[in-house]
Amino acid sequence: MTAKFGENAGLVWNALANGKQEIKALKKATKLNDKEVYAALGWLAREGKVEITEQEKDVFVCLK
């Protein structure tokens, strides 16, 4: 199971290489569901690889 989290984190990382994205766009780019995206973001955030910001009701993510 942990390997899948790492794979998903890689998909998210690659999608974020194109720049800052909103969660909905990130889900579309990676074809991951909510749980998978948030788990991958948790993995990357724990490693200090991403910056997560909230603007109004939208959540944006970018690489650090």
Number of strand segments? 3
Strand order of the largest sheet: 1-3-2
Q: Please, how many helices?
A: 3
Task: Report the span from N to C terminus.
Answer: 26 Å
Domain tally: 1
Give a written overview of the molecule:
The protein is an alpha+beta fold and 64 residues long. The protein has one domain (2-63): Orthogonal Bundle (Arc Repressor Mutant, subunit A). Helix content is 56%, strand content 22%. The chain has three helices and three strands. The protein has helices at 2-16, 23-30, 34-46; strands at 21-22, 50-55, 58-63. It has a three-stranded antiparallel sheet. Strand 2 (50-55) and strand 3 (58-63) form a beta hairpin. Helix 1 (2-16) packs across helix 3. The longest helix is centred in the first third of the chain and has 15 residues, at 2-16. The radius of gyration is 11 Å and the shape is globular. The mean pLDDT is 95.
